[in-house]
């Protein structure tokens, strides 16, 4: 796992290209550790999840590693994987997946764990777990249904079929569709920089309101939003934002 810094944007890079960035136990541990460290870093305002190699974003769990597993081994790996996927879901700042090539199984779930997905011409998405005697276990059944609806998610999960970047965009899986091969990373970094230019307090609180309120009744969700508004409106960011607007300059957000 590699981490690259781009100002207030951090890039988490899956770095097993020879294995098509398959998630081994070791990679899962590294991902959880690096994501948790970034979550605790107040200078980070957005995160891009990308991958090395020309063929794949990530093809999911390392089945070659699992081939020799006993039931006890598989059971021991389970909390490691849950922490890895959870570390992306729980990031307090927006996370953007830059998908080029295959995003299958756990790879698709890593992308779904992000707030936004950017995909280029070569991207393919799929949750093929039922074809190998499993179910999506990295949040796929929950995250995909929340993103595109239960009926559409059922179609993809029950069949295990792959979808192209165009179909994924039409379904609502992909937020930003860019043309060309291997262009998703640059587009994702550009989007992250755009997000990072906004109020750090505002963006963090907006993400919290979105995530915390989505499964609540509307009245309770509006209370979550109100708390987020208050936490932002009475911050130094609001003072600087209004001052910058009045002075017709870019904001200089407090560190």
TrEMBL record:
Its EC number is 4.2.1.17. Transmembrane segments: none annotated. GO terms for molecular function: enoyl-CoA hydratase activity. InterPro entries: ClpP/crotonase-like_dom_sf, Enoyl-CoA_hyd/isom_CS, Enoyl-CoA_hydra/iso, Enoyl-CoA_hydra_C. GO terms for biological process: fatty acid beta-oxidation. Keywords: Lipid metabolism, Lyase. PROSITE patterns: ENOYL_COA_HYDRATASE (PS00166). It catalyses: a 4-saturated-(3S)-3-hydroxyacyl-CoA = a (3E)-enoyl-CoA + H2O; a (3S)-3-hydroxyacyl-CoA = a (2E)-enoyl-CoA + H2O. PANTHER family: (7AS)-7A-METHYL-1,5-DIOXO-2,3,5,6,7,7A-HEXAHYDRO-1H-INDENE-CARBOXYL-COA HYDROLASE, ENOYL-COA HYDRATASE-RELATED. Belongs to the enoyl-CoA hydratase/isomerase family. This is enoyl-CoA hydratase. It comes from Actinocrinis puniceicyclus.
């Amino acid at each position: 796992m590699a981490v690259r810094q781009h100002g207030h944007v951090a890039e988490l890079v899956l770095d097993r290209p020879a294995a098509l960035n398959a998630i081994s136990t070791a990679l899962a541990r590294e991902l959880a550790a690096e994501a948790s460290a970034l979550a605790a870093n107040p200078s980070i305002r957005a995160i891009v999840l990308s991958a090395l190699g020309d063929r794949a974003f990530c093809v999911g769990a390392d089945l070659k590693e699992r081939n020799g597993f006993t039931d006890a081994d598989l059971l021991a790996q389970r909390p490691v994987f849950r922490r890895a996927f959870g570390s992306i879901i729980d990031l307090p700042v927006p996370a953007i997946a830059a998908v080029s090539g295959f995003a299958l199984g756990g790879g698709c779930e890593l992308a779904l764990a992000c707030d936004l997905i950017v995909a280029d011409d070569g991207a393919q998405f799929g949750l093929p777990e039922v074809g190998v005697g499993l179910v999506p276990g990295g949040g796929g059944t929950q995250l995909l249904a929340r993103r595109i609806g239960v009926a559409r998610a059922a179609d993809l999960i029950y069949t295990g079929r792959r979808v192209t970047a165009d179909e994924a965009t039409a379904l609502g899986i992909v937020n930003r569709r860019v043309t060309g091969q291997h262009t998703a990373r640059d587009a994702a970094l550009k989007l992250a920089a755009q997000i990072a230019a906004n109020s750090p307090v505002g963006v963090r609180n907006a993400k919290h309101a979105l995530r915390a309120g989505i499964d609540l009744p509307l009245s309770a969700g509006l209370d979550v939003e109100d708390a987020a508004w208050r936490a932002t409106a009475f911050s130094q960011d609001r003072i600087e934002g209004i001052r910058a607007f009045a002075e017709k300059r870019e904001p200089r957000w407090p560190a």
